Amino acid sequence: MLTRRHVRIIIDTTELDFCDSTGVWTLLTTLRRAYEQSGWLRLAGVHGVLGRLLELTRLAEAFPIDRDVDESLRRAFEGSVSISR
Question: Which interval of the chain is the signal sequence (predicted)?
Answer without folding.
Answer: none
